[in-house]
Design goal:
Layout: H1 47-51, H2 63-74, H3 77-85, H4 91-100, H5 110-115, H6 135-140, H7 155-172, H8 177-186, H9 188-200, H10 214-231, E1 249-255, H11 260-267, H12 271-277, E2 291-297, H13 301-314, E3 319-323, H14 330-337, H15 341-348, E4 361-365, E5 378-381, H16 388-395, H17 399-405, E6 419-423, H18 425-430, E7 435-441, H19 448-455, H20 459-465, E8 478-484
Antiparallel strand pairs: 1-2, 3-4, 5-6, 7-8
Length: 486
């Protein structure tokens, strides 16, 4: 998909049996969902009954190509059944969003050909998630992308963005579902350019006449093949899963940050499934914010809500460490971990003028350090004979650092009985004995070396912990890692 542009020209073409009736492309107007509440007149038997409540694709422009894809899909019926089951936890949410924009319900089948309904899916071109959204599309629709989050992977957030984009295309191409599909894959500007070329040559605008890539040309028949099989499963010997037309997942809002592995154990939801429902979270934990949203199977929600306080008491997540690399600043590190620079300064006794040393260990607050019950400073009560130099030797820290931590002059006299802030260095070193198991979801471009550098652990440790026999990793693969944290 490409970024759309404002278009002011008019397109007029002839309409035929397999032709497309193109209405003038309108200037871009941001599409908003309908405010009218939809009340279903019919009680649907299941999700498939709801999808085919209407027939928005009356004509098949390439019936032979569609039939070819039908045969390809049903050649391995077991694989096809598994493919269809991938949409079990997302189809209802997609249909709800499509209804909000009054879009054809059949568009809910689109992720089957985009990603196999796999939120971890990543293409070679950089498109990701159920809807294979490109980075530019993610920016247009304000999908969050930070060190902690890639919302294009998030099944719910990406669906909201993709459906809004489909609504724009549907409106731009006069509510023609076939043209909407072509524009979704090939891009609306490119499609209109090809239509203008055909018009200027006096040729009919048909799928056969449009100059499209092989992938874009096959996009419509591939979609129609999926639609044809699901609409007539018995004809093709397919056993569709009986997915109810109701919510099967729902969100829980939690105050604070959540670490995925302990939360998985707490909820009884496997780590892989927890990440699948919440694929937008790309690290071992959710971002260190005051509010976390997680999606879970609906039958587990009430019990989890009742016991959530017990989870946080048993699984506090407060700190991790970071070894400073060449050229890094406090601002770089704060941005990397999505924490406030002032919080980073507070817990590490730094000022705006502080210089960082290569391999210096900093504490990263995962939460608000001003309200936490534990600030990991090391303190020393001044006794007779203490000097900044003697304390520096004792704690292996530069005297000037002790002076800065306590707003003292380097030549000042220490007062007996005063508690001095020695800093976080020894605390950070003691954290090596306090290890935590975390989960990491492999992303496109990751390798063992990159992950080992990111978490400051040995490649051999990663391989041994995950029983890896080779260095090959796949996007979406879940790795267990042991990191230092309090």
């Amino acid at each position: 998909m490409e970024r759309f542009f404002i278009v002011f020209f008019t397109l007029i073409i002839t309409y035929g049996c397999s032709n497309f009736n193109i209405i003038p492309a309108r200037p871009y107007v941001d599409i908003e969902p309908s405010k009218e509440v939809l009340v279903p007149e019919v009680k649907y038997i299941n999700i498939w009954d709801r999808i085919f409540k209407e027939n928005n694709f009356v004509d098949d422009p390439l019936p032979n190509e569609t039939e070819r894809y039908v045969k390809r899909f049903i050649k391995n019926k077991k694989h096809f059944n598994e493919l269809i089951l991938n949409g079990e936890y997302y189809l209802f949410e997609v249909l709800e969003e499509l209804d909000r924009y009054r879009l054809p319900s059949e568009f809910a089948l689109l992720p089957y050909i985009e990603s196999n309904y796999d939120p971890f899916s990543i293409s070679s071109s950089g498109a990701v998630g159920l809807w294979q959204l490109m980075p530019t599309t993610g920016k247009i629709y304000n999908l969050e992308k930070t060190w902690w989050v890639e919302a294009r992977h998030d099944p719910i957030e990406s669906t909201k963005a993709a459906v809004k984009y489909l609504a724009y295309l549907f409106n731009r191409f006069d509510r023609n579902p076939t043209l909407t599909l072509i524009a979704y894959h090939a891009g609306p500007t490119y499609l209109e350019k090809q239509i203008r070329i055909l018009e200027s040559r006096g040729r009919e605008v048909t799928l056969n006449n449009l100059k499209l890539s092989k992938e874009s040309f096959n996009y419509v028949p591939k979609f129609l093949a999926i639609k044809k099989i699901i609409k007539n499963p018995y004809k093709y010997g397919i056993n569709l899963p009986n997915i109810p037309n109701q919510k099967v997942i729902d969100k829980i809002q939690i105050e604070g940050q959540v670490e995925m592995l302990p939360f998985s154990e707490f909820t009884g939801v496997t780590p892989e499934f927890l990440y699948q429902l919440n694929a937008g979270y790309t690290k071992w934990a959710t971002p260190p914010t005051n509010n976390t949203v997680l999606f879970l199977p609906i039958e587990r929600l009430e019990a989890i809500k009742q016991d959530i306080d017990d989870y946080f008491q048993e699984n506090p997540i407060r700190w991790m460490t970071h070894n400073v690399s060449s050229g890094e600043t406090l601002w770089d590190i704060a941005k990397l971990y999505d924490v406030a620079v002032d919080d980073l300064k507070l817990v590490n006794s730094k000022s705006s003028q502080s210089l960082l040393s290569i391999n210096e260990t900093l504490l990263i607050p995962l939460g608000d350090p001003k309200i936490t019950t534990f600030i990991p400073y090391q303190t020393h009560i001044v006794s007779e004979g203490d000097t900044l130099w003697s304390l520096g030797r004792k704690y292996d820290i530069a005297p000037i650092e002790i002076a800065r931590n306590n707003q003292l002059s380097i030549n000042g006299v220490l007062s007996i009985g005063v508690a001095l802030n020695i800093g976080t260095g020894n605390i950070a070193r003691s954290m090596q004995a306090k290890k935590r198991s975390i989960l990491y979801s492999v992303k496109q471009g990751d390798n063992l070396y990159k992950i080992s550098e990111l978490f400051n652990i040995e490649i051999s440790e990663i391989m041994e912990l995950n029983n890896l026999s080779s260095n090959d990793l796949s996007p979406g693969q879940i790795l267990k890692l042991i990191i230092s944290a309090i």
